[in-house]
Design goal:
alpha+beta, 14 helices, 2 domains, 339 residues, globular, 14 strands
């Protein structure tokens, strides 16, 4: 039986929560309330528990990188206050589940951007250093632009990094089809779409006129038989109401579609990098790639796992990635939690 994307995502979240429960010992942090608690770390003495120390030092030394640390955590108000600085607001990159933090942990570590092996794996020929949160300009049919944010740009490569996010989002067809190059780049009939009911699902008791009508004579039936007849009738009311409810078509994998269009407009390549424990994300990316019309454009679209990349990263970084994220080089099993 196929495993859903939500299952893959939740399993990875549980593993990361357990790994960071161990990693956080002796480091400034708090835990969210509830099952599978999320660990959020605070800066402490020039270090940060969510970051590989050499990477964090490189980040704070560069204003264009360190500004990324200021991005406020969307659910920060629901988290316990930092112990050392109760007035500090939680940042998105404080979370052990942050895909941006993992991205910067890797590509901000000294020696990674200079590595010929890393550049070969990503297909980067020219010089330069990674830019995080790069603002693309995706042309719209209206003549305006969608200034979408791409996780990273490095030379002629745009990169989208995923960790525990459940999917690549959905958007209604009118929004997606408003991009200028949409039909030039994609065969819309091949893109994954779903039809979504946009009205709230109503219970049978809310349909007063129909609900109060007699569904059939139940005299002579037992209480259980009467309940079964009533349940079948009410289920039919709900089903009939849902058939009449307004719906809208939405494209699945909106982030991927948008970033392919950003790469097309900029004349660059685009790569999705994900954890090998999330095969659902790879399949979602393949569904979008197969809808690209141009063979030349398809050659500019790539996919890579963190485990594949780990094999060419500096040796000093690998133990950190394995202990904190469970990422071991492809072909080698990561150490179990707590080992």
């Amino acid at each position: 039986m196929a495993i859903g994307s939500g299952t893959y995502a939740s399993e990875l979240r549980r593993e990361l929560a357990a790994r960071n429960h161990e990693w956080a010992r002796g480091r400034a942090h708090v835990e969210s309330i509830g099952g599978d608690p999320v660990i959020v770390y605070s800066p402490e003495g020039g270090c940060h528990g969510n970051f590989f120390e050499p990477a964090f030092k490189a980040i704070v030394a560069r204003p264009d990188w360190s500004k990324r640390l200021n991005k406020v955590h969307a659910q920060g108000r629901a988290l316990p206050r930092p112990v050392d600085d109760p007035k500090r607001k939680w940042r998105e990159l404080d979370s052990c589940m942050s895909s941006d933090a993992r991205l910067m942990n890797v590509f901000c570590t000294p020696g990674v951007a200079e590595s010929a092996a890393v550049r070969r794996m990503l297909g980067i020929d020219e010089g330069g250093t990674p830019v995080f949160g790069w603002k693309a300009k995706v042309p719209l049919k209206s003549g305006l632009f969608d200034r979408t944010e791409v996780d990273m740009r490095w030379g002629d490569l745009l990169l989208e990094a995923k960790l525990t996010e459940s999917d690549f989002q959905m958007r209604k067809a009118e929004i997606v089809e408003a991009y200028r190059d949409f039909d030039l780049v994609f065969d819309r009939e091949l893109l994954p779409r779903v039809e979504v009911m946009i009205a709230r699902r109503r219970a049978a008791a809310e349909m007063h006129e129909d609900f109060t009508q007699e569904w059939e004579d139940t005299s002579g039936l037992t209480v259980d038989e009467t309940a079964a007849v009533a349940g079948e009738y009410q289920a039919g009311l709900v089903s009939a109401a849902e058939e009449k409810a307004p719906r809208e078509v939405r494209y699945v994998g909106y982030q991927l579609i948008r970033n392919v269009l950003a790469a097309y407009a900029a004349g660059v390549s685009f790569c999705v990098i994900h954890d090998e424990r999330r095969p659902d994300l790879r399949e979602a990316w393949f569904e979008v790639m197969r809808a690209v019309r141009s063979a030349e454009m398809r050659t500019r679209l790539k996919v890579l796992t963190w485990q594949e990349l780990a094999g060419v990263l500096p040796g000093c970084l690998r133990p950190f990635l394995e202990m904190k994220y469970g990422i071991a080089a492809a072909g080698r099993q990561s150490s179990p939690v707590g080992s």
